Amino acid sequence: MDQSLPTYPKARKDHRCFGCGETIPKGSRYALNAVFDNGEAYSIKLCAKCVYAKTRLDSGDDGYGEGELKEDHQYLPDDYSFMLARLAEEYDARMKRIREERKESECLS
Ligand SMILES: [Zn+2]
């Protein structure tokens, strides 16, 4: 399973989390992974809880099946949502830098 770098968009409608099956409500941030598997491309959406579970509790890059992160939710700390917030912030900063660099190179050419 090949995964591209995740992006962290804001949900424009309700989504279902791949990891736990819970609803990702419209307007909230979530992690979006594009996956390429045996020539097939699909996207995996994860809620804030599963992002934490995957980042902190998962032992590594082992794959996880649909709904399999749900059982890890019982180990979540109260402040689990900072993980997704921090990743989303880093993502925003990276995107901003890329946009600025692009603008600069356009000015130079
Ligand atoms: Zn989830």
Task: Outline the structure in words.
This protein is an alpha+beta fold and 109 residues long. The chain has a single domain (2-108), classed as first zn-finger domain of poly(adp-ribose) polymerase-1 (2-Layer Sandwich), CATH 3.30.1740. The chain is 35% helix and 18% strand. It contains two helices and five strands, in the order βββββαα. It has helices at residues 48-57, 81-108; strands at 2-3, 15-16, 23-24, 31-37, 40-46. It has a three-stranded antiparallel beta sheet. It has a two-stranded antiparallel ribbon with strand order 2-3. A hairpin with a 6-residue loop joins strand 2 and strand 3. Helix 1 packs across helix 2 (81-108). The longest helix is centred in the C-terminal third of the chain and has 28 residues, at 81-108. The N and C termini lie far apart (39 Å). The model has no long low-confidence stretch (mean pLDDT 88). Zinc ion (ZN) binds at residues 17, 19-20, 22, 46-47, 49-50, 69. Zinc ion is lined by residues 17, 19-20, 22, 46-47, 49-50, 69.
Structural class: alpha+beta
Bound ligand species:
zinc ion
Secondary structure: number of strands? 5
Relative strand content: 15-25%
**Second-tier CATH architecture:** 2-Layer Sandwich
Summarize this structure briefly:
This protein is of the alpha+beta class and 109 residues long. It has helices spanning 48-57, 81-108; strands spanning 2-3, 15-16, 23-24, 31-37, 40-46. Strand 4 and strand 5 form a beta hairpin.
